[in-house]
Specification:
The protein is of the alpha+beta class. The protein has five domains: 30 residues, no CATH class; 71 residues, no CATH class; 70 residues, K homology (KH) domain (GMP Synthetase, Chain A, domain 3, 2-Layer Sandwich), CATH 3.30.300; 63 residues, no CATH class; 72 residues, no CATH class. The chain is built from twelve helices and twelve strands. The strands form three sheets. The protein has a five-stranded antiparallel beta sheet. Strands 9-10-11-12 form a four-stranded antiparallel beta sheet, with helices on one face. A three-stranded mixed beta sheet has the order 6-7-8, with helices on both faces.
């Protein structure tokens, strides 16, 4: 999330380029694309693709037509067409890979409908752009005060100024419909700009604001995740996770997107497991499913009459009993198939402390005992208090 020009202080604190994704190499942006077709030559008599991908603040991207055939490369700052005025962005992708990106995003607009690139940004354009970006935090703070004064049930998450500084987009979240006509009048009169209100979801808000997740890393939505797929509680059930909303919910208040990352692997592993609603019929009684360990292939069952005691079976043993029940045959009991003691012995043999690795003080120097010294001092003190003289050792006679 930083370019090569971002250095750090003597204490190791990163200074940062403070360009907010406008570096020359573009490595500060979360939605960079590697142009793997850059070194490939086009066939003869074929013109290069005249549409360019341009990115703006917080990963917002758009496709613009290079009608003036400017020599553009990744990282160039350009002025693009908007309504009204113009906006400043950074070229993120050029060439044939733009065609692939448009097809991926289902962008089927005609070339006449795609807005064009005016020019490469001059130094004056960049200065106006930086000045407009510097106003965003102060405008956001004052706008929140106006919203609280008007008692509107909405949350303002971010403000984005246009490149020419004449227009600002206010991103907000709200549960219900909000009548912000009075708000737009006050914002336009206070800041003397054109105002556009845009409602975003909770996931989009978290991606724009960023943060640190429970895993200790930056949020996936603010670093690399671009598409927000729906996450349901069934994903947690398939992975044998406890349905605790405090642990399963992310900072946006919705279910964590990472629940879908390994879901396909769990679904493939669960194909060999029996269904949880199947009962095991034995001559001793009927056993009900309790829990399973997908990675080790273990399943726990317990009798209906005695649900306290669980019996651990392997996946092959459970399937064997189910096949016998389908043929109207019953096994004597689960104790014949239970392999709990065998696995306990294997676990003891594997996890044995051989070299004292569990001891936290194994590298400390042993302390010397002072009991003997204390005993001798106490003896001398007792003799002094009692008035008796300590026994002296007999001296050897000299010949």
């Amino acid at each position: 999330m930083s370019c090569n020009s971002c250095s750090s202080t003597i204490k190791g604190i990163p200074r940062g380029c403070k360009s907010n994704g406008a570096c020359a190499d573009g490595s500060c942006d979360k939605l960079n694309v590697f142009d793997w077709l850059a070194n490939m030559e086009l066939p003869a008599n074929q013109k290069p693709f005249d549409i360019v991908e341009v990115r703006f603040k917080n990963g917002r991207k758009g496709f613009y037509r290079n009608s003036k055939e400017l020599s553009l490369s990744m990282g160039d700052v350009v002025a693009v067409e908007t309504s009204p005025g113009h906006d400043i962005g950074v070229v993120s992708l050029t060439g044939e890979l733009v065609r692939v990106q448009m097809k991926k995003k289902n962008s089927r607009r005609r070339k006449e409908e795609i807005k064009q690139i005016y020019r490469k940004a001059s130094q004056r354009d960049i200065d106006v752009w930086n000045t407009a970006k510097g106003k965003e935090l102060e405008v956001q703070r004052k706008s929140r005060l106006i919203i609280s004064r008007l008692q509107l049930k909405m949350k303002l998450s971010d403000v984005e100024f246009q490149g020419d500084g004449n227009k600002a987009t206010f991103y907000y979240t709200a549960d219900d419909r909000v009548d912000f006509r009075q708000l737009i009048r006050e914002l336009a009169g206070t800041f003397s700009i054109r105002v556009e209100m845009k409602q975003v979801g909770l996931r989009q808000e978290a991606s724009r604001l960023g943060g640190i997740g429970s895993c200790g890393r930056e949020l996936c939505c603010s670093t690399w995740l671009t598409d927000f797929r729906s996450v349901s509680t069934s994903a947690a059930r398939y992975q044998q996770l406890s349905l605790n909303p405090q642990k399963l919910a992310g900072q946006c208040g919705k279910l964590k997107c990472c629940l879908n990352y390994e879901l396909d692997s769990y679904l493939d592993a669960l194909k060999g497991f029996p269904k949880t609603n199947l009962w095991l019929h034995t001559q001793k009684g009927t056993a009900v499913f309790q829990k399973m360990d997908i990675f080790k292939g273990w399943i726990w069952y317990a009798y209906k009459d005695n649900p306290v005691i669980w019996h651990k079976l392997t996946l092959e043993q459970a399937n064997q009993i189910i096949e016998m029940n389908k043929e109207n045959n019953k096994v004597n009991s689960l104790e014949e198939f239970s392999s709990e003691h065998e696995y306990e012995k294997e676990a003891e043999s594997v996890f044995t402390d051989v070299v004292g690795q569990d001891s936290l003080t194994r590298f400390d120097k042993p302390k010397k005992s002072r009991r003997r010294k204390k005993g001798r001092s106490n003896r001398k003190g007792n003799f002094r208090n009692s008035g008796r003289k300590p026994q002296q050792k007999p001296q050897k006679k000299k010949n």
